[in-house]
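chain below, 529 aa
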Amino acid sequence: MNLRITHYAISCPRRNVISDGFLRSRLAHSSYRKNVSLRLRLTLWYTGLLAMLLILVGGMVFSRVQASVMGGIDGELQKKGEQVVRLVSLSAQVEGIPEPLLPFLNASLEDPELFVQVRDNTRRVVYRSSNLARTVIELPEPYYQQAMHGLAGFYNLSKEQPNDLRVYFAPIVVNGQTVGIVQVARNLQAQQEVLDQLGKNLLILFAIALALAAGGGYWLTGVALHPIEEATATALAITRTGNLSRRVPIRKQRHDEIGALINTFNEMLDRLEALFEKQRRFSADISHELRSPLTTILGNLSLLKRAQQLPEEEREDMLNEIRSEAERMHRLISDLLLLSQAESGRHPLHLELVELDRIVLEAYRLAQRRAGERLDIQLGHADRALVMGDADRLRQVLDNLINNAIRYTPAGGRIELSLSCQDDWAVIRVQDTGQGIAPEDLPHIFDRFYRADKARTRAAGGTGLGLSIVKWLVEAHHGQIVVESTPGEGSTFDIRLPLAEPCPSEEESFSADMKTDLVDREPGNPVDQ
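prediction:
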C-alpha cells in the first residue's frame, strides 16, 4: 500500500507538468496561427504540398533508375555465372572439379570488369580470375547453405565503400549433387557514383523548384488576395471615418470567387449606405414632425398660462388646437409603432375568409359621410369577391387611400371606388380627380414621411406614413399596389389581392343599388358558403 501511495504522489505532479506543457504548446501554436498572415499560410501550404509531391516523384524516379541499373548489372552477372557453370559442368565429376579445366576458364572468361571465383563443395577456392589477384570473394554462411541446396542468388559485399560489390552465386550440380559454387562479382562504385550524383541533382532541382514555387506562390497569392486587402482597408476606413460612400475598386471585370466577394461587399455597402441615409432622413423627419405639434402645444399652453383673462372663445380655440395636435402626435406614434412591429415580424395578420365587396361598400358609405357635399363620391362596378385576409387591416388600407383622395381633391371633384375580378385577382380601384402626383414623386410616395406637397399635407393633418402602411398591408396579404397619376387630372390606385374562391358569374352579381343596401345589413352576417 505504501508503494502505491508513494508512486501516486510522484506521478501526479509529472502528469500535471505534461498537461501544462501540452496546454502551453497548444496556446503557442494558436498564437502563431493568429500572427501568421493568410498569404504566408497559403504559401506555406502550397510549398509543403509541392515538396511532398516532388519527394514522391523524385523517390519514384530514383527508385526506377536504381532498379534499372541494378537489373542490368544482375542480368550481366547472372549471364556470366551461368556461362561459367555450363563450362565447368561439362568436365566436372562427382568427385570434384578437374584441375586441367581451370586454365581454360582463365583464358575464355577473362573480363576486366567482372570478378569470377569458383569454389568446391568444401568452400575451398579452386579458381580466381586474374583481376582478383589475392583477393577472395567472401561467401557468407547463409548463401553457402543456399547454394548447397541447389539455389542461386545475389548479395552485396563491402569492399572500399558500403555495399560496393554485387555478387551472383550459383551451384555446380553434377548428377544431382552440388560439387562446386561459382561466384561472379562486379564493382558498383561507378554506378553508385552515378546514382549519388543523380540524387544530388534531384535535390538541387527540387530546392530550386521549391524556391521558385514559394516565391511565385507568395507573389500570386498577394495578387489574388489584393482585392481582399483593399476590401479590408475600405472597411477599416469606413469604420474610422464613417464614410459609407467608399467602395472597393474593381480594376477589371472578374467572374471568379474574389470578384463575387468584392461585388457582394460593394452591394452590402450600397444597402448599408441606403439604410443609413434612410435612417438619417427618418430621424430628421420624425424630429420635424414631432417638433411642429409640440411647438404648437407648448406655445398655446404658455399663452394660456400668461393670459388669464382671455375670452372664453379664444381659450376654447386654443384648447381645441392643443387637442388636435395631440391627436396628430398620437396618430403619428401609432403609425410608427405599427410599421416597426411589421418590420420586426411581431404584428401578425388575423387571416380569415373576408367578403371584400362588403368592405368596399362600407368604405364607400364612410367616404360619403366624410366628404359631405364637397365631393362627389361614386361606387362603380363591384363584384362579389372572397379573399383570405385581415378584415380590419383591409379596412385600414381603404381608409388611408380614401382619406388621401379626400384630402387632395378640391371641392366639386369626384372620387370613385370599384371592385372587379380579373383572373385570380380581386382588384380594388380608388380613383380621384385631385391635384395628381408629379412623375418625379411617384417612385417615392410609399416612403415614410415623403410628401410631394409637405406644407399642404401637414396642414391637412397627415402624418406622412399612410401610404407606407398601405403598401406594407397589401404586400402582407400577398398582393400588389399600383399607382398612376397625371398632375392636374388626378390619381388612380389599384390594389390587387389573390382570390380565395372564384368570383360568381355576372348573373349572380349584385347591382349597385343592391350593393348599397348591403351596407345596412348586420356586419356579423356569415359569409355565404
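The two ends are 90 Å apart (CA to CA). Residues 74-193 form a domain with the Beta-Lactamase fold (CATH 3.30.450.20).
thats it, cya
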